[in-house]
Design brief:
Number of strands: 7
Order of helices and strands: HEHEHEEHHEHEHEHHHH
Helix content: 40-55%
Strand order of the largest sheet: 1-6-5-2-4
Largest sheet: 5 strands, parallel
Number of helices: 11
Shape: elongated
């Protein structure tokens, strides 16, 4: 009976599954990339109003609903170095998953969102101050829960169902990584910007084939 050679034993034990791709990107690394990589594309998936209030200089505003509607078309126009940003990272992660399904598997998500980038000393553009969408969602959800509990005590016990419905909705939102309330609030008049992104202004601004560079970006 022959014993396996050391080289064969080593090769069989050293094989291991490939490590998952790291998609999170810290603000300091993004600052370096902005200086070093002319092919870098930073896409801000927040609402136009949030973008107007504060955004990374040179980033593109493609709100998540618009990106979701034209994912394949956008993916066909992007290069290999893409960073997605939002307020906290939740919407950017949704965008990353959608683009991943369309063939863009190398997109990164900025940790800490745009506020984190600004706090780290990144170059940002500031405009009219507004509450970000996620803060508005927390206010709306909390107010409805309080209303349901108060109404259930002083008006009718059935009104308490409102609090239960909000809790169910938040649980579903976390489980599916979506936010119907956020989408509804984003459509409110106070969350509208002077120039709302469209397919023509937001998607078609990227050259076909993903050959765009940061020189083509607006400030």
């Amino acid at each position: 009976m022959t014993r396996p050679s050391p080289s064969a034993s080593t090769s069989s034990t050293s094989a291991s599954p490939a490590a998952p791709a790291v998609t999170a990107l810290d603000p300091e690394t993004l600052q370096s990339w902005l200086k070093e990589h002319k092919d870098l594309v930073v896409i801000d998936v927040r609402s136009a109003a949030e973008f107007e209030s504060l955004h990374i200089r040179g980033s593109y505003n493609v709100p998540l609903p618009l990106l979701s509607e034209h994912t394949d078309e956008l993916a066909a126009r992007l290069g290999s170095r893409v960073v997605l940003v939002c307020q906290s990272g939740a919407r950017a992660e949704q965008a990353r998953q959608r683009l991943g399904g369309a063939g863009i598997g190398t997109a990164h998500v900025l940790t800490g969102g745009v506020p984190g980038f600004a706090a780290a000393g990144g170059d940002v553009v500031r405009g009219k101050a507004r509450w970000d969408l996620e803060r508005q969602v927390r206010l709306a959800a909390g107010s409805l829960v309080v209303l349901g509990l108060a109404g259930g005590k002083f008006v009718s016990p059935k009104i308490r169902l409102l609090a239960g419905a909000i809790g169910t909705g938040l649980t579903f939102s976390a489980a599916t990584n979506t936010c119907a309330m956020g989408q509804a609030i984003s459509a409110m008049p106070w969350n509208k910007a002077a120039k709302e992104p469209t397919r023509e202004s937001a998607i078609l601004q990227f050259p076909a084939g993903g050959n765009g560079t940061r020189e083509a970006k607006a400030s």
